[in-house]
Design goal:
The structure holds 2 protein chains of 2 kinds. By secondary structure, chain A is an all-alpha fold. Helix content of chain A is about 65%, strand content about 0%. Chain A folds into 2 domains: about 140 residues, no CATH class; about 140 residues, no CATH class. The chains are: A mainly alpha, B alpha+beta.
Chain lengths: ~350, ~260
């Protein structure tokens, strides 16, 4: 029911309401645009991503040394799962790898050697403008070929490689940085091949994508557990501890403390589900990240997934600001932070 | 109000104030043009939808229908990108409940006497090292189990061509995966015949462990999973992973026919 007002007064009131609504909407959109740009594109230093590059590169080298320890059993013509079987599994989807078509042991070894060299260069930060995208692509081809042997480690490695290649992750803590400083000392002009260590929007975009992707992983990891009864009755950790195939440390004695195991299960489920909310505020972030280290450290030590646990901790470091990371590295290496 | 927000300290401003004596202060605005930022904004939005789409679809699965049509629509729209960039994961770690492990047991050996077949188990902590190498094999045994499709056509498939097609495809994949694993054993062990079985290692409860003193690898926790619906319930194997010298199971040649000891391969 519209109130009865005179025509002119009503017209003015309506016009004022429209003007206010328009102004509020424009103000909201302006604020949204500012916040969006600030979130995604504020230039940032690359020190955090530099540390992540070293950890990711080192793990990549290790992963491929392990593949290489029995290469033909994984990739060869008589592999556990042959290229033909993998093609059949992925018939109709877009999971494609040229490795599905290579049977020659010589070719496979040559390719694997290339992968190791690229991973090593990426880890030490040599030619990162090229080795970062190449490391992502080559490892992607391995992932598509090695269906049936993969687990969470491969997912988090592909996540890190995908986003690190978008940023100048080799601009610090790298051979590229050392070469750049030598070039500068020699009075030569900067080269695109040696990324600059100044704040960059690309670093911010890569960091944000990494952080949001991690939030999605934890959100679904958490809510998927909400479907299970064992995470509610507190017995889930018992059944994780008594899994002989996963177990690396005998912690079955913890079963004598069901209250403790129950509490750990409850903390895990709440932490994981709400990670996407609690990791952003400055006050709750240290607690959220500390719990991440505890949970993944426990998985690494107790459930035999050292590689996976370690890399989940590494990707959580993306929430450490570059300046803080730089100070930590300086403290650890006992070198001035400006270097 | 908007002006206050715009001039508020950004995280980078705060960082810069901490380290202003060591590094150049970062600017709060991007050097990229608004057009370039718009293009990138669209790109990161699409990418994040792709990151979200697969676990969302995976999560909407139920016993009533395959998955939500909305989730399926989003996933199919971006499937090329999701598949190729390796984003097709559900992120169900130890969920919804921690479950039993699945192993592969293979009997390999010469079919001519006096040779005895031997049992190889995958994964095996005692021989597979380092841990990552072991875990690659553990994932293979879980993959074989997850690929299983019985040889019998499901009752629903008789009147439903979609279910029938899906069953045929699943069965074809399972046979291919299992045959590939058998072939690998045959080559790597120089074996004339191979039998691959799927083993389930159940998880003991606290009563079994504390009161009844079962070990985590107690033989009673291992069962051989049936390869068809015609086979009745899973059978207990005792000892769990038949050691060398135990009564051998019938061996098959390449064509799948049973090989009588002493007979021609």
């Amino acid at each position: 029911m519209k109130p009865k007002v005179s025509n002119s007064a009503g017209h003015i009131a309506t016009r004022d309401t429209q003007a206010t609504w328009t102004a509020n909407t424009l103000s909201y959109l302006s604020d949204f645009s500012t916040a969006w740009n600030r979130f995604w594109f504020t230039p940032a230093f690359s020190h955090t991503l530099g540390v992540l590059r070293i950890a990711t590169g080192a793990m990549l080298v290790y992963m491929h040394l392990v593949w290489g320890s029995d290469l033909l059993s994984f990739l060869g013509p008589d592999a556990w799962l042959t290229g033909e079987v993998i093609r059949l599994i992925h018939q109709g989807d877009y999971t494609w790898s040229y490795l599905n078509y290579i049977d020659s042991p010589a070719m496979l070894w040559a390719h694997h050697l290339l992968m190791l060299v690229v991973a090593l260069c990426f880890a030490v930060g040599l030619g990162t403008r090229i080795t970062a995208p190449l490391a992502w692509f080559l490892n992607l081809m391995y992932c598509h070929r090695l269906t049936g042997h993969l687990f969470g480690l491969d997912q988090v490695m592909m996540l890190l490689l995908m986003y690190l290649m978008l940023a100048p992750c080799g601009s610090v803590y790298s051979i590229d940085a050392w070469l750049r400083s030598k070039r500068k000392q020699a009075g030569k002009s900067p080269s695109w091949w040696l990324p600059d260590a100044t704040p960059s929007s690309a670093t911010q975009v890569a960091t944000r994508l990494m952080q949001l992707h991690l939030c999605v992983i934890y959100l679904f990891g958490g809510i998927s557990k909400l479907r299970g009864e064992m995470w509610w009755d507190g017995s889930a950790l018992w059944y994780a501890l008594v899994n002989w195939e996963y177990q690396s440390i005998d912690a079955v004695w913890l079963g004598h403390y069901p209250t403790l195991l129950g509490a750990l299960a409850h903390i895990t489920i709440f932490w994981e589900t709400f990670y996407c909310a609690t990791v952003w505020p400055r006050f709750s972030r240290p607690w959220t990240l500390a719990l991440a280290v505890a949970v993944h450290g426990g998985i690494a030590i107790g459930l035999g997934m050292i590689t996976f646990g370690l890399m989940m901790i590494v990707v959580n470091l993306s929430f450490i600001s570059p300046i803080t990371m730089r100070a930590i590295v300086a403290k650890i290496t006992r070198r001035p932070a400006s270097e | 109000m908007a002006k206050d927000r715009n001039t508020a300290k950004t995280p980078n401003h705060q960082e810069a104030s901490v380290a202003s004596n060591e590094l150049p202060a970062p600017v709060s605005t991007s050097p990229w043009s608004s057009k370039w930022r718009l293009i990138l904004s669209i790109a990161v939005t699409i990418h994040m939808v792709a990151v979200f789409a697969e676990p969302f679809r995976f999560f909407t699965r139920s016993s009533q229908r395959s998955f939500s049509p909305d989730a399926g629509y989003i996933r199919s729209w971006l499937s090329a990108y999701i598949d190729f960039t390796y984003l097709h994961h559900g992120y169900f770690f130890f969920a919804p409940n921690p479950g039993p492990s699945h192993l592969i047991s293979a009997q390999v050996g010469k079919v001519t006497p006096p040779n005895q077949p031997k049992e190889i188990v995958i994964p095996d902590k005692t021989v597979q090292w380092p841990r990552l190498y072991y875990h690659r094999h553990f994932m293979l045994s879980e993959f074989l189990h997850n690929s299983f499709a019985p040889p019998e056509q499901p009752a629903e498939a008789i009147n439903d061509p979609v279910i029938d097609q899906q069953w045929r495809r699943d069965r074809e994949l399972y046979v291919a995966v299992k045959s590939s694993i058998e072939n690998h054993f045959r080559i790597s062990e120089k074996s004339e015949a191979v039998i691959v079985r799927r083993i389930e290692h159940a998880l003991p409860n606290d009563i079994q462990v504390y009161r009844d003193k079962w070990k985590l690898n107690d033989p009673r926790l291992y069962i051989v999973l049936p390869e068809s619906l015609a086979e009745q319930t899973p059978t207990l194997i005792n000892p769990p992973l038949a050691p060398i010298g135990s009564p051998p199971l019938p061996l098959r040649n390449d064509s799948g026919a049973e090989v009588v000891e002493g007979g021609s391969p």
